[in-house]
Amino acid sequence: MRMWPYETEADALRDAVRLARGMTYKNAAAELPYGGGKCVVIGDPKQDKTEGVLRALGRFINRLGGLYLTGVDVGTTVQDMEVMRMESPYVVTIPEAMGGPGDSAPATAFGVFQGIRACLREVYGSPLPQGRTVAVQGAGAVGKELVRYLVETGATVTIADIDQEKTSVLAAHYAVNVVEPEEIHRLDVDVYSPCAMGAVLNDQTLPELRCKIVCGSANNQLAEERHGDLLAQRAILYAPDYIVSAGGVISGVDSLNPGGFNRQRAMEKVSHIYKTMANVMAISKEQNIPTYRAASVLAEQRIAMIRQVKSLAV
Ligand code: NAD
């Protein structure tokens, strides 16, 4: 559930449809037994969020009887979900103490790390981050966890964030280099990992990239699809964002098991992102198409197959 001060209802609808489509592809490629959906709320999360609003939303979601499950997105928190949960069991991303998966960022970061390993194997013949250079854009919830995985496995990491406090805290914990936010995508590194905002692969940044691989959690990294074609033309391996950032939703879905959430099992499932990314690269090579299109092929193949299963008269 996203909460955002959309200017018009049409803007909100457009965003909901775009995001729902994104969730469909993400869930299909991650082999989850769910379709995609999104709920957007028009409002300022800093001012308009009250217990009344959240519980009213919970009641509305409950009326859908499980057709739609909701979780945290921009403008909402695990604590908001806890309030909504009072009205509906179809609110998924609740705290671990309540049987839910808690914060999704660590699982998302682990998935991105698996994506990076798969890309390293493709480009350098070995998935080991040891001795590789990685530029992480954004030292937020996902970025900081990703940095931990990378540093612990021997990569040389450079970070940037518009919030200096975030980079300072991270630099105090780990041996990382810090650069200005406008420099990070230009570094001569093995991997550029966008973990901040979307549309970072655009007409202005693309000619400036000097990395071999782009793999990060940020949603909608390609400003337009044609930027995915341009990356392929420049022989830069692009890990489609919804493939490698599926860790949060994979872990969230684990909490729907009858026995409740199991972190070890969830992380084991998230680790399959390595294989999914390898499959995307295999389709890309077989069909001679850029990786962003190969990811769509993978997702659409699964959607078509499951549609057939669902149409069986039993
Ligand atoms: P976050 O808000 O915790 O962190 C984002 C960080 O990026 C912040 O520290 C912010 O200051 C920084 N930032 C913003 N603009 C920047 C810029 N121009 N240059 C450098 N840094 C900048 O968010 P998050 O949860 O870490 O998510 C990061 C990205 O991953 C988002 O695009 C999000 O949609 C996506 N994502 C997150 C999850 C998840 O589980 N949290 C799952 C899937 C996708």
Order of neighbouring strands in the sheet with most strands: 5-4-3-6-7-8
Let me know the largest β-sheet.
Answer: 6 strands, parallel
In DSSP terms (H or I, runs of 4 or more residues), the helix count works out at: 12
Number of strands: 8
Oligomer: single chain
Structural class of the secondary structure composition?
alpha/beta
Shape: globular
What's the alpha carbon Rg, rounded to whole Å? 19 Å
Distance between the termini: 34 Å
Which cofactor or ligand species appear? nicotinamide-adenine-dinucleotide
Question: Could you estimate the helical fraction of the residues in percent?
Answer: 40-55%
Uncertain spans: none
Q: What would the average pLDDT be, to the nearest integer?
A: 96
Strand content: 5-15%
Strand and helix order: EHEHHHEHEHEEEHEHHHHH
Structural features, described:
The protein is α/β, with parallel strands linked by helices and 314 residues long. Helices cover 47% and strands 8% of the residues. The chain contains twelve helices and eight strands. Helix 7 (225-233) links the parallel strand 7 and strand 8. It is globular. The model has no long low-confidence stretch (mean pLDDT 96). Residues 104-105, 108, 137-143, 160-163, 166, 181, 195-198, 217-219, 245, 248 line the site of nicotinamide-adenine-dinucleotide.
Give a quick summary of the entry.
This protein has helices at residues 9-29, 51-63, 78-85, 105-124, 141-152, 164-173, 225-233, 241-244, 247-254, 263-270, 273-287, 291-310, and strands at residues 2-4, 40-42, 133-137, 156-160, 177-178, 191-194, 213-214, 237-238. It has 314 residues and is α/β, with parallel strands linked by helices. Helix 5 (141-152) links the parallel strand 3 and strand 4 (156-160).
